[in-house]
Amino acid sequence: MRLKLIAVFSLIVVVLGGLFLAVSIYAGSAPVDAQQAPRALAAATVELEVEGMAAERWLSVQAKDPAVREPFGISDKVADAQGNKATEVCNSLRAKAQKAPELLGVMPDLIALVDQKGIVLGRDQTTLLRKQDLTKFYPSLKAALDAKAPMSDVWLEKSLDHQHLAEFVPIFGDDGKLLGGIVFASLLNDARLSETSKKTSAKPLVLVLKNGNGVDVIARSDQATPDMSAILSKAPASDALAKSGGDAMDVPGFGSGAAAKARGLEGYGDGGNKVALVAVVTPPPPATGKLIVPILGLTGLGILLVVIAGYMLDAYIMRPITEIEDGLLGIINGQTNRRFEIEHAELGGVVFRLNSLLNQLFGVAEDDTDEQGRPSTAPSGKGFKEAIAVDESMAESGTTAEGAAALHAEPENAYYQRLFAEYIAAKKSAGDPTDHITPQEFSDRIRASEQEMAQKHGKPVRYRVELKGREVMLIAIPLA
Q1: Is pTM beyond 0.85 here?
Q2: Which of 160, 229, 261, 359 is deepest in the core (most CB within 10 A)?
Q3: β-sheet bridge partners, residue 110
Q4: 249-250 sheet: strands from edge to edge
């Protein structure tokens, strides 16, 4: 029996493990929706463009603040005065930016004031970059100042440790003449792309920098893997990305089932001729590669648990059955005094009835009641010998009960017949057996009990039946 249980349940575990593996393999081989990559790319570029426009609009409002124009009225010939004031203004703008909801959560990494030629007057938090001509590194800044219009660009300059998305707006004096501009630069790194992916499609995003005939990966979101970066950094993907522009294009090299789209990052400087954003969608890895080992491990654990459960069930069920079988075989072979002493939640009732049956077959007198006092065989009518519960409180106190006169006037035969009927009804209501109680035996017991009560209390009594909970009580009512 034990081996049968183990075999059946082990087969169930193996079948379920196989089905789970098959479903995982099928799910992993499902083709990727061809529209996922272009949708992810479009959503990410729009998000970055909106963040840039929001920064430009916020800077345009700040540029009209008279306090922002103060550094331009200080002579640059006074040692550090203009630069210190510019740094003070930039620090104030940084504090405002950190509390500005219109910036959509984009925090500045650099805020600077430049004059009309692009020379840095000062930046926030440090004296670095003062007197530095940023137009040598970022022609788009000069173009914005010449055009006297806001503009955004991608700033990538290793010598300045810059890797930013930058926005700049012009600052005008009261006479309308150009004074210079404000530069607002936010980090363009893995964390920025991860946040952009989280806000849009949750698909892998990679930002690449064009370098002539190829590209360099400069940032990737958390969802993008190092393998994706490696594919984009070499032909044929790098060759295709080097030629990318404002329009979305397919990126080769990712194999069947995957999809990758790229386009230049529009809305920043040169219209996407510097950097390109790539969105990659790949199918989930096949289960045979990563899931087969844990599935086999879980299947093996399931079989081990089945074996343990099989031994426990065998000990709990089969051993008592085996003991009963051996005992019956011994009785058949002449051991007529043999009985079963097995305590078992499920088989205890069967064992009790087997012992009762053996006692009847072999004429052995034995207590045939269970733990609750219920007989396993029908009671015989040999005599009414059970104890009767009597409440003597009224007889002891001498209290005259209501209806005592009527009880005293009731004819004797009618009284005993009525009391017997009420007693039997109460016993049945309590769930007690009554087949062994006869009217004559009951009357005899009651007469004897009434005589004892009369002698004990010095007055005649009769009884009234009451059911208290599950106990049938006889209340002794004094008649005088």
Answers
A1: no
A2: 261
A3: 185
A4: 215-220, 205-210, 275-281, 259-264, 249-250
Query: In the beta sheet, which residues pair with residue 153?
Result: 166
**What three-state secondary structure class fits 278?**
strand
Query: What mean pLDDT value characterizes the chain?
Result: 84
User: Nearest Cα to 299, choosing from 5, 6, 16?
Assistant: 16
Residues with Cβ within 8 Å of residue 183, at least 6 apart in sequence: 110, 111, 112, 113, 114, 134, 141, 166, 167, 168
Q: Which residues of 366-376 are buried (b: 16+ CB within 10 A; e: fewer)?
A: eebeeeeeeeb
Region 342-371 average pLDDT: 74
Going by C-alpha positions, the residue among 228, 196, 213, 205 that lies closest to residue 276 is 205
Q: Kindly state the greatest CA–CA separation across the chain.
A: 136
Sign of CA dihedral 101, 102, 106, 108: negative
Which tens digits make up the pLDDT trace of 69-125?
999 999 877 778 999 999 999 999 999 999 999 999 999 999 999 999 999 999 999
E strand or H helix that includes residue 268: none
Bridge partners (DSSP) listed for residue 181:
114, 170
Residue 159 backbone dihedrals phi, psi, to 5 degrees = -65, -25
- How many percent of the chain have pLDDT more than 70? 86
> Helices 81-97 and 36-62 sit at what angle, rounded to 10 degrees?
130
Contact assessment for residue 28 and residue 284, using Cβ atoms and an 8 Å cutoff: yes
* β-strand partners of 250: 261
pLDDT at 382: 47
> pLDDT band for position 168 (50/70/90)?
very high
Q: What share of the chain is helix, strand, coil (3-state, %, to 5)?
A: 50, 20, 35
Domains of the chain (ranges; CATH) run 31-39+191-283 (3.30.450), 63-188 (3.30.450.20), 389-478 (no CATH)
